[in-house]
Amino acid sequence: MKKIILCFSMFLCLILLGFTGKEVTIQLKDIEEVSEIQLNTAKISIQHFGKERAIKLMDEIREAPLLDEGDRETIQNNGYYHTVSIIYNDGSKDMFLFFKVDDKWYMETTGGTIYKDAEFITSYIDWQEINMEPYLGVPSEWELKLNKQFSILDLRYFFIEEVKQKMEYGSSEEDAVLYAKERINRSMTIYQYALEEGYELPETEYDKLMEKHIEEAESAVNYEEIEEYYEEFDTTLKDYILKLKEYYRVMDTIDKLYKIKYEEFKNGKDKINGKVCDDVEEYWYRFVSEVIYEKAKKYDMSNFLNELKDAEEYYYRHYSQIN
Known about the structure:
The chain has 323 residues and is an alpha+beta fold. It is built from twelve helices and eight strands. The chain is elongated and about 70 Å long.
């Protein structure tokens, strides 16, 4: 009797898995229930994506063969992947990750099951491996002169720089000053949130990022040309970058937080305070305005606000074009 039960169990497994090693077909809802297709961070309505195209995509997902058992230890998601989400009218979704190993594409479910022969994804998502050499922009003469005037690049320096850059694009001085205050205040509010919530860069990670900024600059195709330009102002590009250390501390921390939110949206988290966001920029904007700014009401930012006020007054005393 035990042998009969065992044989029946094995037969049942073969039926469920299929003799070709394929898992039970991935279950997706009917096309009529689909409202959007999300490719990475881009949400596309079913009308714009195309009903027939969506049906083809869903069929290709369903028909993807299960990864061979012998490859399951060696084929793993390397952390760089694309996502496809099928979003339904009721707000639920099915999400799949696509990654590439040795020029072959694989598909992974949110449960961790991996399928092979997923090259079909390249018909829906642009995949271009481009190794672009870094290229340095040329700083304006006033930027380098301004940099020389400050032994330490404090908030006064960045305030002046923001105002002058905005005016170069045609803004009035009054509008440029208002823009500088709002931009700096926004950045520092996000930075303060990052510190309060544990997103601060560890000093070791920060030092590596500074080294990376310098290495990227020195590997630029026009590095020697730009370096000669800096030498005319008695400095070097490396010294200029090191002088911007506190600026990079703030901006790299904000960038870290943004990347976390980008990955959240890419991986299907698209609501802020219950509101579904249409794209990653809306997700970030609502996160900043509705989450960060709300929490910032409890932060003591009086020292920063006093420094910002001093920076504005310093600008008007020494750099204003208003007589």
